[in-house]
Amino acid sequence: VRYQMTSYEDLRADFATRFGDSYGYDDRASVDHWVENEFSHTRGITFLDHAGSTLYSQSQLTNYHNDLSKNLYSNPHSSNQSSTLTADIIESIRHRVLEFVHASDEDYDIIFTSNATHSLRLIADTFPWQRP
After folding, report:
1. Cβ atoms of 58 and 39 closer than 8 Å
2. Core-most of 12, 87, 92, 103, by most CB within 10 Å?
């Protein structure tokens, strides 16, 4: 099978012909505007590695910058004001994740790891590999 390279514009036109110009959105123009404003740093790039790291938007960068400009975060295992702030935010996020997946903190724990490999390693190291 031989594949032919097709331009983004041709693919988009074909998609719009088959599914409608506003497939999945009420207003395609507003989505284009949103993409231009939030992801202008990706102009001309096709990004497919969302499993490794997903794209960040301009508003995320702005909000993150504003947060770091106003707050001091530090090791949540220490005993000082900035550590307490960090620990409180981590606990708040744990509860938000549990709410998102409709789970109780009485039955489940949320563990944050540095990456997917670390997560899989934790599971592998604690999994009861032998049958009872």
Report:
1. yes
2. 87
Q: Contact 70/63 with Cβ under 8 angstroms?
A: no
In order along its 132 residues, the chain shows pLDDT tens digits of 555 667 878 887 888 887 775 566 666 667 778 888 898 888 888 777 776 677 889 999 999 999 999 999 999 999 999 999 999 999 999 999 999 999 999 999 999 998 889 999 999 999 888 877
Q: Model-level pTM? A: 0.59
- Cα–Cα separations (whole angstroms), residue 94 to 17, 67, 89, 103, 111: 44, 19, 9, 11, 8
CA distance 105 to 116: 22
95 Cβ contact partners less than 8 Å away, ≥ 6 residues apart: 105
